[in-house]
Amino acid sequence: MEDKQFLSDLKEQKQLAYNRLLDEFQARVFNTCLSFVPNMEDAEDVAQEVFIEVYNSINKFKGNSKLSTWIYRISVNKSLEFIRKKNTKKRFGFMQSITGNAIPVDKSSYFTEYNHPGVQLENKERNETLYRAINQLPEAQRVVFTLHKIDGLSYKEVSEITNKSVSSIESLLFRAKKNLKNGLTKYYKKDGW
Amino acid sequence: MNDKKITPELIDELIDSASKVEVVNTPPFFKDKVLNRLSQVTVERQQAEVLSWFTPKYQIAMLLLFAALNIVAIYSYRSSSKQQELQTFAEAYGFSESESESILN
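Above: the input entities. Below: the structure tokens describing the complete assembly.
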């Protein structure tokens, strides 16, 4: 896959190469985006942005890591960027409602409408709660937990994507689980965030 | 999940359920949409390349040249209109040379 010819075709922006890239990576990119942004439409938009970014930045790819690792990194960054933007918009909407330029905003609502087709209907509510709890984790913990637990990547793959050692991945994952336990326990005691 | 049922085991189970999320197929026409957007990016880039030589230093130089031309134009307009005003004044009061040299005099 990662032969030099393919990479040079990508750099020359040949359509055949991008056809092949999409065949190979569209499912992985889409599922990674969906792990971070659990909404079909939003995840599709983010996944499209990932491929546009790959197209625009392929000349900056020096081959220090695997192409798949580089694409995963872009997917994570684009997803986090999307979440940050959505959260800022929500905060701005909330500020507007305080200052009187009222735009009805559900202050407690999640950054996106939860709509993950990979979750069985009977688990939907529980998983939505879990996703809300994950969204409240610090960014580093959120990335590691999502990539390892939801996307099913190994510690080594996560460490390559995040540029961290395997031991720090383990530590981040441990802290993420601990924080999730605390958050979820509090949530169920109070019955709300 | 109500209060009675909450046990650390259930919370663990909930956290572990994250790994049970199934793989989802990409939406229909995803590939076509991306390829279409990539071709749009190429077209936009080609259009942008037409003026790619017009870098900020050229833009500043152009701006300075434009400003200098304007200053020169205003200066020359002012001096010519001043002369014209004097001419009109002289003609109105009969000080004009052209009038004094008239054949009627």
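Note for the figure: Helices of chain B lie at 8-16, 30-50, 56-92, 97-100.
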